[in-house]
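User: What would this chain look like folded?
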Amino acid sequence: MIICSNCKHTNMAGAMYCDECGAQLAGRDTLTTQNITTEQFERVQEQTPKGEDLYQPFDGSDAWGSLHLLDTGQVLPLSTRNEFTMGRVSEGQPIMPDIDLSPYQAYAAGVSRLHAVIKREGGRIIFIDLGSANGTYINGKRLTPNVEQALNHGDIVALGKLKLQILLKNA
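Assistant: Here's the prediction, encoded as structure tokens.
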């Protein structure tokens, strides 16, 4: 067990971030942590100067949305299927998420091998944390594992510390 130096919460061995406050546990001697409120999240659309469109149209007519990686600015389209698992590939492991976030520093950010699911059900977009080690947050609020949460266009999702914005077509 690892005790968080920030909030004194007892975490499972091997956790990179505190389950309670989100502070980084590995290398914690050199880090300063602070609480982040949802008011501090800015939506990308609000930062866009008037008259400019930062997003190009989706390539396929079947694309229903995309994931905008906030750290890199890359956009990953969600098309063809209605459900995608998200996580990272780990060498020698049989777990293969539909959306591999490994190229985007997922391991360092605390993304689990099978972290979450995003799916489209009719007109609703649903997000589910799959019991990840370092949690999932939507607009700063931690999700309860295995419980569906509705998403809206522009929501900020954090898988561990990897932040992405949900962009929905026809939103």
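Helices lie at 44-47, 106-109. If you want, I can go into more detail on any region.
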